[in-house]
Amino acid sequence: MQAISHVQNLNSYLIIRRSKPRFDKPVRLAVPVRCVYHSDSVQFPNGVGSSRVDWQSSCAILSSKVFSQDQDSGDKSNTSSASDHLAAAVNGHKTSLDLNLVPLDKKNKPQPPAKQPPQKPLTITDLSPAPMHGSQLRVAYQGVPGAYSEAAAGKAYPNCEAIPCDQFEVAFQAVELWIADRAVLPVENSLGGSIHRNYDLLLRHRLHIVGEVQLPVHHCLLALPGVRKEYLTRVISHPQALSQCENTITKLGLNVTREAVDDTAGAAEYIATKNLRDTAAIASARAAELYGLNVLADGIQDDSSNVTRFVMLARDPIIPRTDRPFKTSIVFAHEEGTSVLFKVLSAFAFRNISLTKIESRPHRNRPIRLVDDANVGTAKHFEYMFYVDFEASMAEVRAQNALAEVQEFTSFLRVLGSYPMDMTPWCPSRGNP
Q1: Per DSSP, which regions of 36-82 are E strands?
Q2: What is the mean pLDDT of residues 251-268?
Q3: Which of 168, 310, 386, 412 does the annotation list as catalytic?
Q4: CB distance 213 to 183 below 8 Å
Q5: 3-state SS, residue 146
Q6: To 5 degrees, how large is the angle CA 323–CA 326–CA 330?
Q7: What's the mean pLDDT when you consider all of the chain?
Q8: 257 tagged catalytic
Q9: Is a pLDDT exceeding 90 seen at residue 281?
């Protein structure tokens, strides 16, 4: 496989397959939605528009502002400086478009424009978004305000506009329908394992992984003000949160029933809305602040090293780079099942590429494979999809060669994303009370 240039269509290498998968079907929407805003994947660093069209429109607006100022003031000495100041915001020094600004004197006679310094040309840096791109973005997450997913969205994109969604699939559709720019969704937890629903949705939808973020999970036991622990008869939370605090709840001497709900912050909201004085929730300290609950016990997770890994999803992939650690996520399948797994893994081992995750999931549209043998009879086997994360960028030749070899052994191969690794310092949650 040849190295990929920056001007190539990234979709040409992000989807590699020999035959169209049977499970890849378009999602039919309940109501028609018309896109009222379109943004190219190109972003300019100075904040004037998020696409080439917006950028050119901004240039035209700047031109009209300068022209009107010249007519009002008629001051030739300030015309050049005003136009320079406004146009400088487009490309650092001067706009690369010829605005043809002609200053007018008091008698409305055109004057030749002053000699301008050479314009700064656009470079690949101006046209390529950085791995950590954007801050003023609309980011979808599953849950309600106060959920851990909202905290992950804020860590991934500081100062973003977080958009809550009631289901994981709604967050995917929010990005596809241009309601949101990004989605931040959990894919695995250090105690509870993988969130299989989101892995299945990654195959159903055409979004790309553009980054990851790891968030330490710190659980609290929350109840209405004035409620004491001995009055509780029920504890509600997300199923994984309940399992992550099982031992601590027992040590606290609570004789309560456990009840699962959709998310942790939703449990806190439910208690506050229904004014339940016999029920506690397992959620974050921020959820207690938002919904007016008291923290009865802090740091009740059984293991202080409780971390959830989230992925950032976008409509377009980012350009892989080699100037920082990258991770690549792929999924593949083969008609012969697990018999080719060793050959696939050897393609990475021979190139010294470290695998950080490998997991199999039953094929949704073809779960059972029948094998006929005249001597034994008919055997039934599960058909599997294999998800693999490895530490290499698609810009590296060794990663391209590895996937070229993997393609020879598989009937389906898709790159879910090549993205920067989360290298932020990590510290475990506070100890149990």
Answers
A1: none
A2: 91
A3: 310
A4: no
A5: coil
A6: 145
A7: 74
A8: no
A9: yes
pLDDT for 303: 86
* Mean pLDDT of all residues in 73-102: 40
Q: Which amino acid is at 226?
A: G
Strands 234-237 and 279-283: parallel
Q: Of residues 118 and 422, which shows the higher confidence score?
A: 422
79 is catalytic: no
Q: One of 248, 308, 328, 410 is an active-site residue; which one?
A: 308
**From the CB of residue 31, how many other CB atoms can be counted at a distance below 10 Å?**
4
CB 276, CB 233: distance < 8 Å: no
Distances (CA, A) of 241 to 248, 260, 303: 12, 9, 12
- Whether residue 361 is predicted with pLDDT greater than 70 in this model: the reply is yes
* Strand residue runs (E) in 63-145: 138-142
Pairing of strands 220-223, 193-194: unpaired
Residue 433 CA from chain centroid, whole number: 34
Q: pLDDT (tens digit, 9 = 90+) per residue, 304-337?
A: 888 999 999 999 999 999 999 999 999 998 776 5
Which tokens is 176 given? Answer: 């596809």
Per cent of the chain over pLDDT 90 is: 45
Q: Residue 310 in contact with residue 228, Cβ under 8 Å? A: no
What is the end-to-end Cα distance of the chain in Å, rounded?
55
Map tokens 């997913």 to a residue. 149
User: 227 with 279: CB under 8 angstroms?
Assistant: no
